[in-house]
Every structure is written in C-alpha cells, then in structure tokens.
C-alpha cells in the first residue's frame, strides 16, 4: 500500500508588486496544527502583532488539538467529560451548530471514524466493516452535552475532532490580534485558511491563488480580496492509496468513507467569519455541487463560494464571481 501525505499551503497569497511599501513589515513562518503558517503584518506595530499572533496560535494548538497531550480536547476525549474554557466551549458549540445547519455533513464527532482510517497517525488503512460501523455509531452530535458551567459530557467511546474548523477559527484569532494591534494591512495563510486585511499597501486588493489540485504548483484562478477570509478544502490535501483507490481525509458522515461528491475543492469566502469558512468548506465538499448550491441559495448563512468539480468546471457564487479570475482550461459559471 502506497501512503502519501502532503501538507501544503493550499491557498497562497500572491505578493507580486507589494514590495514598494514605505511601511515597515514583518513576516513570520509558524509551524502549528500540522501546518506551515505564514503571517505578514505592516505598520509600526507589526513586530508586536506578529509575536502576539504566534503566541496565540501556539496556545490555541495546545488547547484544541486532539493529538496534543494535555490539551482541553485531548483530556475531554480521554475521560469523556471535562470543564472547558469559555473559548473552547464557544468553538465546540459553533462546530455543533454547523453540524445542525448542514444536516450532519459537518460532524465534529467524526473522531472515531478518522481513527478507524488511521488518519490521525501515519498508519492509514481501510478499516474492516465491523470497525467502521462501530466507529460510525459513535459519530453522533446529539450525545455531546454542554452544561451551563462549561462541563462537557460525551457518550462512552465518543471523541471530538475540531480539525475541520480549527484553522479557520485560528485565522479569526489572528485577525483579532491584528485588529487589537492596529494592523491596517496584513495577510495570513494557515494551511489554506487565508485572512487578509486592508488590501495591499499600494491600494490594490490582495491576490489569493486558489490551488489547482491536479498540479499543486499552479492555480485554478486568482481571487482579489482586500478584507476577509477565504478557506479551501479538498480531498487532495491528505490522502492515501489502497488497492488502486484514493482515500482522503474528508469523511462523509453518512457513509464513513471519504466523500465522493464530484467536487475536487471548495473555497468559502466571508468578510468577517473565518470559522464559518472552515466549517462550510468541509461541509460543502461533503454535500457536493447540487446541495452546496442549494445551501448557498437558501441564504441560511451569508457566504460566497468557489466550487471546482471533477469535470473541470468552476462554479462561483454571484457575490464573489467578479473578484475571481479563472485560469484557462476551466469552464466558468457564475451563479445568480
Ligand atoms: P478541512 O481540511 O477543513 O476540510 O478539514 C478536514 C479535517 O476535518 C479532517 O482532517 C478531520 O479532522 C475533520 N473532518 C473530516 N471529515 C469531517 C466532517 N465530515 N465534518 C467535520 N470534520 C471533518
Ligand atoms: Mg474545514
């Protein structure tokens, strides 16, 4: 069995032409949450902002990573109950809310299923039917109980995985740190979770490259964004091959298998909510094109999206389509 694992920056903020700024800038690379994170801030407080953001990211990893021994989520998963901090309760509650909103396409109780596939370790393999159905029985958001004193209780054997929402939340945390430090221009890419503010220092919007899953050194198109969040999910981000089949890390909770929805990548854009972008990029990938479009059209949450289908079509929602320029070779459709 061939095992392939990749960690790449999935959305890149392209920096051509942004070097002529008179403003001081600081760039840092941080390795956290299994991801190379790149942060750039401009202005007199750039150094302080970057240092504060780095500290916040490492603290967050130590709080919400389920593989980090002693984190709040690690301890909760070990014992089945625990008192969590306000911030972690809020994130867990949001994860559960996105589960309800997406009719179970997003599921933060997917942990036992991820473990059955070995995705949390380097021993990825197709589980037996019995092991998979046992794990799927534990994937149930309804048995997660959050009490008013921040005590969380899980069903026996159940575990929480915030991997589908955590980096988007982290990008939001960095955005708050930048705002608190008065950063007027900045860009951050946390493994495909992008946050930008203030546009480039030359007055143009930031240019965000949406990666091409079939050639990771190229893009399917460029998104122009001055302020906001853009998050991409795709099955190409972490996968292994077994018996000629590719199994990836986004699980369809309905089947317990990698989602085979006809989508190759999903990018979600929001002016102010990175957590939403991350949760929905995962959920809409599971849903597939038709359901994703219906979900966007329902207006139940406000967001924009760029879908890439397995037959090389790009479908963009109307609020973002004019800010996105597709590369040649893709059919491009704007929703109304
Ligand atoms: P993302 O890269 O944001 O799409 O998130 C993928 C990660 O989220 C996986 O590595 C798992 O930790 C977790 N995950 C996988 N499938 C789901 C799902 N259906 N709902 C929520 N989280 C998931
Ligand atoms: Mg996600």
Task: Kindly list the characteristics that best describe this protein.
336 residues; alpha+beta; 9-stranded mixed beta sheet; globular; binds adenosine monophosphate; binds magnesium ion
What is the topological layout?
Blueprint: E1 11-14, E2 25-32, E3 35-42, H1 46-64, H2 72-79, E4 81-83, H3 86-101, H4 111-117, H5 129-137, E5 145-146, E6 151-153, H6 166-180, E7 185-190, E8 193-197, E9 206-212, E10 215-225, E11 228-234, E12 239-242, E13 245-248, E14 263-270, H7 274-287, H8 289-298, E15 304-309, E16 313-316, H9 318-321, E17 324-326, E18 331-334
Parallel strand pairs: 16-18
Antiparallel strand pairs: 1-9, 2-3, 3-7, 4-6, 5-6, 7-8, 8-11, 9-10, 10-17, 11-14, 12-13, 14-15, 15-16
N-to-C span: 45 Å
Bound molecules: adenosine monophosphate, magnesium ion
**What structural class do the secondary elements suggest?**
alpha+beta
**Helix coverage percent of residues?**
25-40%
Low-confidence stretches: 1-10
Descriptive report:
- The protein has a nine-stranded mixed beta sheet. Strands 1-9-10-17 form a four-stranded antiparallel beta sheet, with no helix packed on it. The chain has a three-stranded antiparallel beta sheet with strand order 4-6-5.
- A hairpin with a 2-residue loop joins strand 7 and strand 8.
- Helix 1 runs antiparallel to helix 6, helix 4 packs antiparallel against helix 5 and helix 6 runs antiparallel to helix 7.
- Mean pLDDT is 93; it is low at 1-10.
- 30% of the residues lie in helices and 29% in strands.
- By secondary structure, the chain is of the alpha+beta class.
- The chain binds adenosine monophosphate and magnesium ion.
- Adenosine monophosphate binds next to helix 7.
